[in-house]
Amino acid sequence: MAAQRPEISAIVVCFNEEDNIGRCLASLSWCDEIVVVDAFSMDRTVEIARRHTDRVIQRRWTGYRDQKSFAHSQATKEWVFLVDSDEEVSPELKTEIDDALARAGAETDAFAVPRLVYYLGRWWRRGGWYPDYDIRIFRRERARWGGMDPHEKILVDGPVLRLRHPLLHYSYRDIADHWKRINRFTGISAAEQKAENRPWRMSDNTLRPLFRFFRSYVWKRGWLEGFPGFFLAATAAMYVFLKYAKLRELELKHGARGGETG
């Protein structure tokens, strides 16, 4: 007789995601509990979410790490599955999760899941976006939160196993949406680095963007995707450039000096 899967809570944080939240939550219908933490959306996000779960909590946005940590605290099952509102769980991944949890030994604390991005009319297996392994499934009482916004992460002490099937990630609606998020995320990242007293250096704005472009376009074979691959590498480099340029701007605003002048 096959082992029974332990119970699992899905947690999703969201804000103004009416285009994605229904697809996301429908793909989580097999979970034993779905907890949605909404940051007072102004569209139909909450209405749609309530069609899929009665555990919809509205809470003022306090940052990616804190919001997801709060959602974690609201889960009640042995295992927790963190899914972003623009992601979807495929039937293949669902089956793999069921099997992995049923077989998980007492020493296993978490599972890392790859993500496959859909953008510019294609699934991105080149350019550096795949497999992008991230801990998404973890024992509720053995996990804690670390990292800096917008790159928060789950921390565990025990073994982390990798799953094979990816989460499907519908990342950006279009180029305008992509640029809007780059602008927002680089601002958040710069503020976090300033709060951590990380000094700006000229090399941050010269060498780091060049390396990021090379990594995406050459090393990760983005060039095989034609112009979209070039675009992806260029925007990755611009993300790095803006992040550190905004850090320098914050230093100048507050009268601080980085390790090098510029």
Per-chain topology:
Blueprint (H helix, E strand, L loop, with lengths): L7 E7 L6 H6 L6 E6 L6 H5 L6 E3 L5 H11 L4 E4 L4 E3 L1 H13 L6 E4 L1 E5 L2 E3 L9 E6 L4 E5 L2 E5 L4 E3 L4 E3 L5 H21 L6 H18 L7 H27 L9
Helix pairs in contact: 5-7, 6-7
Q: Based on CA inertia axes, which overall geometry fits?
A: globular
Distance between the termini: 68 Å
Radius of gyration: 20 Å
By DSSP, the count of extended strands is: 13
The biggest beta sheet reads: 7 strands, mixed
CATH superfamily of the largest domain: Spore Coat Polysaccharide Biosynthesis Protein SpsA, Chain A
Could you give the order of the helices and strands? EHEHEHEEHEEEEEEEEHHH
What is the CATH T-level topology of the largest domain? Spore Coat Polysaccharide Biosynthesis Protein SpsA, Chain A
Give the integer mean of the pLDDT values.
Answer: 94
**Strands in their spatial order, largest beta sheet:** 3-2-1-4-9-6-12
Number of domains: 2
